[in-house]
């Protein structure tokens, strides 16, 4: 018989949020694969648990090389527990490669559900949560970041991002440029920790706030695009969207066609708005 791969959620801040099953899995697994073995040691000490199995590191730098080794353990009947520093493995953390490889070898994969920064931030944001999409981390380079944001400019579902504190001001400024300064958002900082903070407001306002410097683990929740029907997007907004695309490297013709398709209006309407703005010196 093959073994079992267990993906276990770990606390995103407060260790008391650890699911009860986590302690049992840590104590009983044949192999514990951890993103950071030092953090794992602190977690097991806090939970009063001593792993009986072998503890190995499993992080971005060795994920590709260690996956085959862990799969062989699984095929041989071992129970392998995968934990990351915080939250659920595979969600912007190591794990996807191991899960895919285990599934391919018909190994059972299960999970110990636990805390999630994505769901916690959504719940606290005050924004619609009936439909949402998780976008993970944006690219570090400014041009690539703008391009990625352009792809979801018309997305009507609530958007969730992770971001590093030292890049938050640039990211919020880029979001304000692409989505508009008044688009509602929430910056969720240090969730479940002592200095937890949720800052809500328009993207322009939040970008100005973040420019002063922000610390901690960050999750950003952004309201989806307004649910407007064909012809309901004003000329000024059409021009702004075309400019955002042009600044990201698109030719004007392609930018006009993309914006027209995005908002559901004829290309001629977008073209006329751009020409009128140019003639007005806007």
UniProtKB/TrEMBL annotation:
GO terms for biological process: methylation. The keyword Ligase does not apply. Its EC number is 2.1.1.198. Residues 4-207 form the Tetrapyrrole methylase domain. It is found in: Cytoplasm. It is an enzyme of class 2 (transferase). The keyword GTP-binding does not apply. CDD domains: RsmI. Keywords: Cytoplasm, Methyltransferase, rRNA processing, S-adenosyl-L-methionine, Transferase. Catalyzes the 2'-O-methylation of the ribose of cytidine 1402 (C1402) in 16S rRNA. Belongs to the methyltransferase superfamily. RsmI family. This is Ribosomal RNA small subunit methyltransferase I. The gene is rsmI.
